[in-house]
Amino acid sequence: MIVEAARIVAVVVLVVMAAYTARHLLFALHRLFSRGRMDYTDLAGFHLPSVSVLIPMHNEEAVAPDIIEALAEADYPHDPQHLEVIPINDHSTDGTGAILDEYARRYPWIKPLHRKKGKRGKAAALRAGTEAARGEILIAFDADYLPGRSLLKFLVAPFADPEVGAVMGRVVPHNVGASLLTRLLDLERAGGYQVDQQARYNLGLIAQYGGTAGGVRRAALETAGGWNTHSLAEDTDLTLRLAIRGWKIAYVNRAECYEEVPETWEGRRRQVERWAIGHTDCLHRYLGPLLRSPCLTAKAKLDGVFLLGVYLTAPLILLGWIATVILFFAGQTYLPVWVAFFLASTSCNAVGNFASFFEIGSSVLLDGAERRIRLLPLNVANFLFSTTTVAVALIKYYAGRARGRSLPWNKTERHRNGNGNGWTNGNGEANGNGRGLSVVKARAAAQNSGSS
Amino acid sequence: MLGYLLLLLLFSLFFSVSFYFGFREWRRPWDAAPLPIDVEYVRVENYFGRSFRAKMQQWLAEAQPNGIAAGLLPSGVLLKTSGGEHLLTLPGGRLERRGEQVELIYCEGDLTLAGGSTFRREIYCRGRCETEATVQLQSIAADGDVILGLQNEVARWVDAQGKVRLRSGTVVGSRVSSSTSIELERQVRAQSLYAPVICTADCALRDDPVASPRGEAAPPITNGQAGTPPAVPPYLAGVRCLQLSPRTWLVQDDLDLPAGCRVESNLIVKGTLRAGSDCHFAGDLKASCIQLGSRNRVGGNLVSDGSIEVGEGSFIARNVAAGTHIRFSAGVRVGQLSLPAVVSAGSEVGLEQDVAIYGKVAAGRWIKTL
Lengths: 452, 370
Fold this sequence. Notes:
heterodimer; A: 16 helices; B: mainly beta
């Protein structure tokens, strides 16, 4: 009985993982050998709709000055008809509110919103920000992001297409050298954006709006029902609702923005847990509507199912491992040993590291950063960590779901500027140049001079 | 048992080799810097000309005399920079044909280049620059006008403060930019164009680029904000469609619009959109393939993943973007002087005579005048 069950589980896991592997292989090959789709970058600077930039902030005094200064240097017209920046102080207990008020005195286009009541969390903050915003296009940034001078122009250009409901840019970690984890996450991000997102966009599938370094058309957001404050992954939630209603999500690889990735495994655990639960919650909410949508093609629906089910692969892999051990000790071998060895070693690279060879390998080639591929075998650490974290998170999720409870929002820890101690001059005034921004600029300048 | 042990050994070897490089990169990183993003980048449409002018000023400041260029009319002075660049400075006049010119050229006044000449390096002219037929150039920047003669070939770019005129058969490998205007005769090819006004042969705007198209007032730029469309517009009767937002309709199949149709909302067509003559679109238009008849008016953007063909005398107020090719018939106008626009195609842009575009034209392969 146990052996029979293990055999069924093993076959199911193999089929599912083979399907995901084929998908990743297709994406990587497409990125390496096929032409890109129209990305609207030629329109940057010529399509300038009114934009509201929303920045949810909860205890962000470590990073708030940097993003405000970066937006002050943006080459988007800083007049009331074109741009307003709404930092949303979401129940902060540190100096975030004072920083924002100081900047509002300095720049008329900054309109801080202080939230002291109501539900906390990013989606709730974005909802409040959207109510206050007047722009036709809403661009959202996490507080730790560092938008370059032209980023807004690149992000709004695709909205010249009336079918585009949301736009996603590419995020690039700037604290790569902080730890092994940040270096592995840098590889993961490269594969995720340079290959996965771009291929999905090129192939007419569902590119994902990531909730930061991206924008949404207000009309599309309103028809989709606004930000879902009950979701831990409000970005995936919105992506699905837009796609199901016929809006397209454009991905612009050229719209690059620096972000800070978690530097500690604990920070990473909380982030992955939130993503896994939020994402899987979307699976339960939108799988039916996705499959019934009259606006999506069959291939887009199929890829949507893959997208929604991606976190379920973690517990599946664990089940597969258990089933394999059972089958091995029960003497259930179907293949010659050398074939099993070949499959095992290939699987380790192709599936075990979540198709890392295909996607991460291709992305570092496309980015011209081949040297960092040496680190790829160590990605198995990130893979094992994520797999177990996701599996545990989903157990929590389903247990909570059975009891009718939802998990709270966990903010990602920031590490820039001494983690919250480096911004003020002692009088409660905003320090105009956050260390993070200048450090990133200096790094970029050094790299540019080095490469030239 | 021995087989298993051998396999285990082989597997461990493979594993340890790959992990060896991984651990080495972790402990002694070769590349632990963030991927470079130029956070200071701001797009400058005439970047080539600007940066070359700045470089030329730098060379002129540091260059040392390196002799007189004999046999030239006008006579020039040869300079050599510390970086080993050879620079020919001229007062102006007509530069006769003398085989291949391999020096960078700096001209203080107006310059004429004799037919059949070949210039392997860039030219910077402080005045007006004119070439005769079949001249081959690398790149040219001028503070006055640039007029390229018949069948010229420019390997890279052309930039002028004054107007640029490209005569028939001229090919520019990269960008043509001007602070004033670009005039293209027939059978001209380039990869991208940027100027306040870009016009093709026989264009009525050539002498008065500020005038609105064909003397008519341009329609207001509504961008889908003006008016309130009815619940189901009459032009969508009997068509499989759905409303994406109060101002945006999506049609699931092809759509044929009769002549004189007025579309107040943004319109997305999954198939081919064909519009008869004298149609008016207040908002944005998107379709897999777009064929607009003559004298159409589009108040918003015109976007297609495939191709776009625009009929005679039509006007598009905002940007035009196509995944493959774009073709404008005679009399088409895009953008306005006060609100420049972009025409962008993944493959080719074909422009018939009397076409005017206010802003930029870019193509993955070629922009061609027909």
